[in-house]
Design goal:
This protein is mostly helical. It has a single domain, classed as Four Helix Bundle (Hemerythrin (Met), subunit A) (Up-down Bundle). It contains five helices and two strands; from the N terminus they run αααββαα. The chain has a two-stranded antiparallel ribbon with strand order 1-2. It comes from Sediminitomix flava.
Amino acid sequence: MNELIEIIDVICEFGLYEDLTIDNKEETLEQSLVRLYSYTFELHPKSSESDESNYLDFDKNLFPNVVENVSLNLADFGYYHTVLNANEVSQNVENGIGDAVDDLSDIIYDLLEVKWRIEKNSLADGLWYFQFIFQAHTKEHLINLLNYLLFKK
């Protein structure tokens, strides 16, 4: 569990602080995203069972400056092209536009909630939410952001 919290803390720094002073920001971010993705394969299947307790809800408004801080800390992050259906192989593939700042901000909000649930609700609730939100939302942003970082170099 300490490993997950450590990974969350490193990634969330990009959105929690307005003037992050670490060396090799993009490399640090990329390594942490890969560690996060890898961590999902290490979780025991039972940790995906929902904790049926009636807990308080996470308030995203507790962290109002995430998008702004990501923009400041990674000032050269921007928009990118993406294929809307990568499994469709044709000459008329529909393209979309992604936003690296939005990707990282969404990842950070998801991870802040995971950590909040672990600390305020229960370990079971936090791990259940991590597995749920990773598959439903975070994973797509993470893969898109890693792809962005690959082609940005």
